[in-house]
Design goal:
This protein has helices at about 5-15, 30-45, 50-65, 70-85, 90-105, 110-120, 125-145, 150-165, 165-185, 185-205, 205-215, 220-225, 225-240, 245-250, 255, 260-265, 275-295. Helix 2 runs antiparallel to helix 3, helix 6 packs antiparallel against helix 7 (about 125-145) and helix 10 (about 185-205) packs antiparallel against helix 11 (about 205-215). It is mainly α and about 300 residues long. It folds into two domains: about 30-145, Tetratricopeptide repeat domain (Serine Threonine Protein Phosphatase 5, Tetratricopeptide repeat), CATH 1.25.40.10; about 165-295, Alpha Horseshoe (Serine Threonine Protein Phosphatase 5, Tetratricopeptide repeat), CATH 1.25.40.10. About 75% of the residues lie in helices and about 0% in strands. Its main location: membrane. This is Gamma-soluble NSF attachment protein. GO terms for molecular function: soluble NSF attachment protein activity; syntaxin binding. One of its GO terms (cellular component) is vacuolar membrane.
Length: about 300
């Protein structure tokens, strides 16, 4: 029955935390209990505004009585309610605060998860902040040697970059993913990330960067001996020959059809850009190479 009047519970909590001539120290422990009951009561009444405030105060209370785990949980509840209320700045701030509190407990996974929840909530309304949150969530796991746990975050951030048409950023992120995969011996994920980066550059019709990316990746034994490398090699040959049908055929092939959906979609739209120009360029390069051979 206590939670049936959450406003009164909030008042009780506030009285216990407000200092006055008669109250010289705050009783955060008792107050936090009232705030928690009030938060549940407001949420049952679907009063999101007051429920959010109650969870914020309950979080502060748990922090004051040195219980960062419970403080983090309440802050996540406040963040979820901020999302319902479209308070986008508060969504970010609250999930970041929850993450910090989890880190105080030495728990990197929930700390990263909190940031990822914030990022997911903000993708459509504040994509730049969403990217920052994904990046910070990944860093927390990487610093704790948990690269494998960050793969879904790399995937989500890459998808968002592609959605925003920031193809260079998407490719760079995929290369970062490849490095992370290498650190935890996830060879298949590593090779898929490198092929994906090459495909993103080709989609953005930056053939020179795609070629450079390919050359760099083939310095890595794991990629050099992979199906993904053989697929990329065939793709570059088809590009140099200006063979549109062959490019389309390779884009349907097995190594590409096993990539993430967002990359498959780009690959199926290849080729983009000026193939004739590339063909002419490749022909000039071949001629230069022949001329050099003649000189030697």
């Amino acid at each position: 029955m206590a939670s049936s009047n959450p406003d009164k519970l909030m008042s009780k909590g506030d009285k216990l935390t407000k200092l006055s001539f008669t109250r010289w120290s705050a009783d955060w422990k008792a107050a936090t209990g009232f705030y928690e009951q009030a938060a549940i009561g407001f949420r049952m009444k679907k009063d999101n505004e007051k429920a959010k405030e109650a969870f914020e105060k309950a979080s502060k209370g748990q922090e004051m009585i040195s219980s960062p785990w419970d403080a983090a949980k309440h802050m996540e509840s406040a963040a979820a309610l901020a999302k319902e209320l479209s308070r986008w700045n508060e969504v970010s701030d609250h999930y970041r605060k929850a993450s910090e509190l989890y880190m105080e407990c030495g728990r990197s996974q929930p700390a990263s998860d909190a940031l990822a929840k914030g990022a997911s909530s903000l993708e459509d309304v504040e994509p730049k902040e969403a990217i920052r949150l994904y990046n910070d969530a990944i860093l927390i796991l990487e610093e704790d040697g948990k690269e494998q746990m960050a793969f879904d975050l790399y995937r989500a951030a890459t998808s968002l970059y592609v959605k925003l048409e920031k193809y260079v950023d998407a490719a760079n992120f995929l290369l970062r993913w490849g490095v992370a995969a290498d650190k935890c011996n996830a060879v298949n994920s590593q090779c898929k990330a490198y092929l994906s980066a090459i495909l993103v550059y080709l989609y953005a019709h930056d053939f020179a960067q795609a070629q450079k990316c390919y050359n760099d990746c083939t310095q890595i034994d794991a990629f050099l001996n992979s199906d993904q490398n053989r697929c990329a090699s065939k793709l570059f040959s088809a590009y140099r020959e200006g063979d549109v049908e062959e490019i389309k055929h390779i884009a349907q092939s097995s190594p590409i059809s096993h990539l993430d959906h967002v990359i498959i979609k780009l690959a199926r739209k290849l080729p983009t850009g000026d193939l004739e120009g590339l063909k002419a360029e490749a022909s000039d390069e071949q001629q230069e190479a022949l001329d050099e051979d003649d000189l030697t």
